[in-house]
Glycosyltransferase family 15 protein
Amino acid sequence: MAGTQRYLRYIIFALVCLILLFFISSSSVPSRPWQEGKPQDVQPGTPPITPNTQHELPPATAPGERMNATFVTLARNSDIWEISRSIRQVEDRFNRKFNYDWVFLNDDDFNDEFIKVTTSLVSGKTKYGKIPKEHWSFPEFIDQDRAARVREEMKEKKIIYGDSISYRHMCRYESGFFFRHPLMLDYEWYWRVEPSIELFCDINYDTFKFMADNKKKYSFVLSLYEYVETIPTLWDAVKNFTAAHPEHIVKDNSMAFLSDDDGKNYNHCHFWSNFEIGNLNWLRSPAYIDYFTSLDHAGGFFYERWGDAPVHSIAAALMLRKDEIHFFNDIAYYHVPFTHCPTGESTRLNLKCHCNPKDNFDWNGYSCTNRYFDINGMTKPEGYEKEQ
């Protein structure tokens, strides 16, 4: 009897083990893959499921031919984290699809950290160049004592960058030399990128190819009036140049963007040059070189505080046809303190923009973009009235 009871206990124990094993194995069966389910299959209160949709993301490289183009940045080693932010903006919104090169220029040698960090962020090739001393110094024809007196006067008047020597070298370099650097000679198109900028919207097409296909040579996203105190004699220098070189002034130009009285006076409108996409061959042309050389010898980069923005803008307005200058409404951009947020809700939604349209500077009274549209006979984007 005792043996029979022992035997029954073994059988019951075995059955219990089998039942437990069955439940354990059932609970480990994988659930139905995400792709087989539908949104309505999820019941209220069910924890969200994040699928792995990596295969559905846009390709790392967009199809199609590439232009002979590069990004270009003037930066110092101390700008490393500010320019890293800018690179991520450009790569995430545009360049991860196109993999264009990036040229970094500096008046000193780049250190290992700057090179290592920026190279890791850029999808194309990175190139690092040192600016020749003769391009980042006082020309021999500049009276250094006079230039020093001007800086002191501007400091007393609290004019922005008025007492800065390095800022003046930067403006002169961007006006007349960056496109002549040996590293830049390999390219036909450039996109200028500054530290600490932000791009708010996706850019799903090749902007360089757009410029080439549509015969554009210069572009902008923001325009405004220059500080009058920094360029008191710039327009006089421009008129001296146009009188000496009338052959460089094209028909159907944008003089009306610059002047309200057919060129007698400058209204101080300019394109903000911290964002530019442009043609390097135009900047290297005899017309532009003659223009820069004439302004350079006038001395205003050091005797005043001429910025590269009005210098570039005046050249583009006078030496390019109106239809060779382009406004990128769809490239949303920020550089302290101004924002260009695309006008038009459908544009912002389609491009996944995260800018606040209330911050858009385009139709502000201090902006010159309204004037650009008027002189070109262009229809303003739908909804611009709400942003005035």
